[in-house]
Specification:
Helix 1 packs antiparallel against helix 2 and helix 2 runs antiparallel to helix 3. This protein folds into 2 domains: about 80 residues, NADH-ubiquinone/plastoquinone oxidoreductase chain 6, subunit NuoJ (Four Helix Bundle (Hemerythrin (Met), subunit A)); about 45 residues, no CATH class. It starts with a helix and ends in a 7-residue tail after the last helix. The protein is mainly α.
């Protein structure tokens, strides 16, 4: 029964991801992205990661999608015909990725990955939230801090680029 739910969520996630890219109207694309976010949260629930499902809905479906919609409304996007020239390249890249995935599955088979001993995240009676916090702030502290610095630099770069596009002088 778990496989039925997994394949349902996986199919809807893949179909919604294709719709996000393929739809011409940015609002419809954002709605397809919302559907994808909710189904990813459903996939987390099937994996017994309820905290990640809640974070997926609150952060991605709530905050990030609203940010996307604000940007779409702010830019006032018009229909553009230059995307018609990109279809041959998109088909070539997509078919190459599908062929690679089929080859990888044929080579490795449909086996489940082997979990290394000592890689368990739950200890005793702790739940998902405690386990994620413990691993994040002990084992993966350095990558977590590096990711936060990369996001900070990207945010500062976006602000500087937006100031230059608006014609305001950028401060050095």
């Amino acid at each position: 029964m778990e496989q039925v739910f997994f394949f349902y969520f996986a199919f809807v996630i893949a179909a919604a991801a294709v719709l996000v890219v393929a739809l011409r109207n940015p609002i419809y694309s954002a709605l397809a992205l919302l559907i994808m976010f909710f189904h990813v949260a459903g996939l987390y629930v099937t994996l017994h990661a309820e905290f990640l499902a809640a974070v997926q809905i609150v952060v991605y479906a709530g905050a990030i999608l609203v940010l996307y919609l604000f940007v779409v409304m702010l830019l006032n996007l018009r229909q553009d015909d230059r995307y018609h020239r990109q279809w041959p390249m998109a088909v070539a890249v997509g078919s190459t990725l599908v062929i690679e995935a089929v080859i990888l599955m044929a080579m490795k088979g449909w086996t489940t990955p082997v979990v290394a001993t000592g890689a368990e995240t739950t200890v005793g009676g702790t739940g998902n939230t405690e386990a994620i916090g413990d691993v994040l702030y002990s084992t993966y502290l350095f990558p977590f801090e590096v990711a936060s610095l990369i996001l900070l630099v990207a945010m500062i770069g976006a602000i500087i680029l937006a100031k230059k596009d608006l014609g305001e002088p950028a401060e050095s």
